[in-house]
Amino acid sequence: MNAVKQKDLILYSGLIILGLAAPFLFSAFKVQLTYLCVLIVLAMTWNLQGGEMGYNSFGNILFYGLGMYLTSSVQVGMFFPLAEWTESGGEKTFVHTTAQYFQGIGVGLIVAAIIPTIVAGAIGYAILGLRGHYFAICTLGLGIAAGEIAGGIEIIGAGQGFTTPPFPAEIVDPEARGQFFYFLSFLVLVLAFVFVKYIYGSRFRLILNAIRDNEDKAEAMGIQTMKYKIVGWMCSAFFCGLAGGIMGGLIGYIDSTDVAFDGREMGVFMVLMAILGGKGTLWGPIIGATLFHFLKEGLWTFILGWQYVALGVLIVVIVVYFPEGLMGWLREKYPERFGEVIDEKDRKAQVELK
Amino acid sequence: MDFLIFKAPMLMVQASLDGILLGILFALIAYGMALQWGVMNIINIAQGDLVILGGYIAYTMYLAGIHPAWGVIVSPIIMFFIGWALYKLVINKVVDRDLFISILATFGIAIVFQQLMNFIFGADVVVAQSGYGTTMLFDNSVTLPNSKIFSAVISVLYAIGLVIYMRKSKLGRAIRATAQNARAAKILGVDTERVYAATFGINAALCGIAGALISITLTLHPYVGLPYTVRSFMIVIVAGLGNLPAVAISGMGLGLFEEFADYILGTEFRIGAVFMLLVFILVYRRFKLSKKREYLK
User: Fold this and answer.
1) Could you tell me if B267 lies within 8 Å of chain A, comparing CB atoms?
2) What CATH number does residue B47 fall under?
3) pTM of the full predicted structure?
4) Residues of B with CB below 8 A from A305's CB?
5) For strand B134-137 and strand A162-163, is the pairing parallel, antiparallel, or unpaired?
6) From A55, which residue of chain B is nearest by alpha-carbon distance?
7) In this predicted model, what pLDDT tens digit does every residue of A275-323 receive, in sequence order?
8) What does the alpha-carbon distance between residue B178 and residue B185 come to, in Å, rounded to a whole number?
C-alpha cells in the first residue's frame, strides 16, 4: 500500500513540475497549453455527470458560455459603463490599468464560478428529472437557445460580439500574457483534479454510480437521487464557468454562437474527449483530452478546410467502434492493472457461451 | 403592449396562415422522425441536415434549368438511396445500442453533412425561384406566396400516400410489425435488417421532399439543419409515436407558435424561441409524468 502511495506521489509531483515548467519549456505553445488545460477541465467535469452519473449532457456549454460572458462583463462593468463599452469598440476609449485588469478578472472569475453553479441548481430540478435521451436533447436545446438569446441581447454586444478587456499595456513583457493565462488555467486544472479525485474516493461517487446504473433502485434504497443529481451537475457547472471565464480572457473576443455558446465545437469536444478516454474513469478524460488536443492540432493544419469533416468522422468512428474509450479498452485487456480479479472459471464459461 | 401585431389584425391572419402552411411542412419531417424512432429506436440528429441536403438537390436542378418543383419527385428518390447507404455505413451499428450512442453518432453525421454541403454548395443563403407568384387576400393586406400553398398541398399528398402505403403494402406491414416487436417479426420471417434500411431510406426520402419544398418556400443554408431536427423532435414528443393526426396538428401548432414569436419577439429570437419551447415542453412533460403514480401491477 505504501509503495503505491509513493508511486502516486512521484507521479503527481512529476506532473505538477511538468505543468509548472511547461510554459518555459514549450514557450511557443503557451496558448495551446492553456487550451489543453481548459479542455481537460471540461472533459473531467463533464465526465462527472456524463460518465459517473449517466446523464449525458450536451448543455454544459451553457455554463461555459455563461462564465465567459460573466467574467468579461464584470471585468468591464466594475470600472466602466458596460453599454458604452459594447456599443462601439469601448476598448479604445476605456483602458484598464494593470490593477483594475487583475482585480476585474479576479472578481469576474469568482462570479463566473458562482452564478453558473446557482443556475445549474435552479434549473436542475426541472431538467434533471428528464431521463436518458430526453435529457440529452433538452440540454442540447438549452445550449443552443442560450447562444441564440445571447446573440440578441444588446448590452453584451448582441450579434456583433463583445471585445474583452485587452491585457494591460503597462506590462511590456511579451511573454506575460500567455504565462498569466496558462498559470490561471493550470491552477483551475489542479483544483479540478483535486476535487474530482476527492469525489472519486468518496461516498458521493458511489451514489452517482448508483444513479447511473439504476436510478429507480437507488431511489428505492433511500437515496435522494434528485438532490445528488443536482449537486453533481452544480460541480460540473462550477468548473465550466471558470473554464469559460479564462477562455474569454484568452481569446479576447466573445461571439455568442461561435465562441461562448459554441455547441458545435466545445460542446461536442467535451463529450467526445471524455468518451475517447473512457467514461467513468479518473484518468480517462485527461488522457482523452490530451490525445484529442494533440490529434486536433497535429492534423488540423494538414487537412485545412476539411477539419470539421474529419471531426464528424472522428465522432462517428469513436462512438460507433470505440464507445468504451481508451481506458475501457485497457481495462478489458489488462484487468489486473485496474485491481479487478478475474475468475478463470467464469471467463472460461463466458468463452464457451460465446 | 406595444406590438405591431396587436395593432394590425390583418398581420395576425397573415401569421396564422403562414404558420399553418409552414407547420404542415414540419409535420412531414416529424413523420419521418417518428417513423425511424418508432421502428429503429434511434433519434436522428442529422434529420435536419438530410432535409437541407434534399433542398440542395432541388436547388441544383434549379441551377441546371429544371423547374425546382420537380425536385419533389427527384429529391426523394436520390435521398432514399443516400439514406439506405447511410444506414448500411453507420446506422446499422447503432440500432440496438444505447440511445445516446445514436444521438452522438448522428450528431457526427450531421457535422459531416453540413461541411460537405458547405464545400459543394457554398455558405450563401440560397433560394430556388419557383415563379409561382403570390395570392393576395383581404384587399391585398395578406400576401400568400403560391409556393407555400403548393408545398402544403404536396406535403399532404405525400403524407396520405405514405399512410396508405404503410397500411397496404407488404413492406409497410413488415415495418409496422418490426416496430411492434422486432424479435417476433424476425422469428416470423421478416428480414428486419432490410426493414430498418428501408425505414431509414423512407425517412430520408421524406426529408428530401420536405427539403425540395423548403428550397422554394424558405431559404437554404448549410448550417440551418439543426432547428429542423429540433422542430421534428418536438412535434414527435408532443404527438407521440405513430399518431399521424396529432403529428399534423402539433406541426401546425408549432408553425403558428413560430410565426407569432417572429412577430412579437423579433426575428432574431425566432430560433431561440424554438429551442426554448423545446426545453419548456420537455420540462412540462417531466412534471406531468412525475405526477402520475407508478406502481407494480
Assistant:
1) no
2) 1.10.3470
3) 0.84
4) 119
5) unpaired
6) B100
7) 888 888 888 888 888 888 888 887 777 777 777 788 888 888 888 888 7
8) 6
